[in-house]
Amino acid sequence: MATTISSLAATHSLHRRCCRSSPSSPSTPARVSFRAAPPAAGATRARRRAAVQVLASSAVLEAPEELATRKLYVGNIPRTVTNDELAAMFADHGTVVRAEVMYDKYSGRSRRFGFVTMSTVEEANAATEALNETEVGGRKIKVNVTESFLPNIDLSAPEPEPAFVDSQYKVYVGNLAKTVTTEVLKNFFSEKGEVLSATVSRVPGTPKSKGFGFVTFSSDEEVEAAVSTFNNTELEGQTIRVNKA
């Protein structure tokens, strides 16, 4: 029996614990149980060090507001600009961490804007000063830090929209930029007729645009003129769609 126990212990690297029968019952076979060896102290310490390192790295993750000071909005870029070309535009002003052109998920076409993240706030500021309002491919681009790209708006108390005057002479305006307000939309279409009213559709209770709106006129001729003139033109850096509503 001793030889058998030694063989098993050597094969499985296990500690053995033998519970033999009492001397008064020599005929009862001995029972042998095995339990796995506890992990080595060195392995335990290594695991603990790894856990501490993970916690430490998680603690220093950059806060979103800090990232926003290095992330730049780049608007009104040509449709042909790629991610690599966008990065190259900013490479002279620091280290480009990431550059991404935004594309329409349905058409696959560039939405004529993108985002560039620089490695430091100083580089982001330098790139903004150097590149904002400069021409790329015949277009004057817009460069802003993302945290200040949109005006500061109190989401808890959005300003009420002017009352919309409906009419049978109405157009639908789609693919509106997030920056387009009702006043901007009305002024834009006033060039081709007497605009009775305009509205930008928004998420209820917030100033967030849904990306479309309506404009009403006083005659069918003005509607036809608005569609033929403004469909597939640009408003606030995006190509809008205009159709009879």
Provide tags for this entry.
single chain, 245 residues, alpha+beta, four-stranded antiparallel beta sheet, 7 helices, 30% helix, 29% strand, disordered N terminus
How would you concisely characterize the structure shown here?
By secondary structure, the chain is an alpha+beta fold. It contains 7 helices and 14 strands. A 4-stranded antiparallel beta sheet has the order 4-5-3-8, with helices on one face. A 4-stranded antiparallel beta sheet has the order 10-11-9-14, with helices on one face.
Describe the structure.
The radius of gyration is 34 Å and the shape is elongated. The strands form five sheets. The protein has a four-stranded antiparallel β-sheet, covered by helices on one side. The chain has a four-stranded antiparallel β-sheet with strand order 10-11-9-14, covered by helices on one side. Strands 1-2 form a two-stranded antiparallel ribbon. It starts with a helix and ends with a strand. It is α+β, with helices and mostly antiparallel strands and 245 residues long. β6 and β7 form a beta hairpin. Helix content is 30%, strand content 29%. The longest helix has 19 residues. It contains seven helices and 14 strands. Pfam families: RRM_1. It is found in: Plastid, Chloroplast.
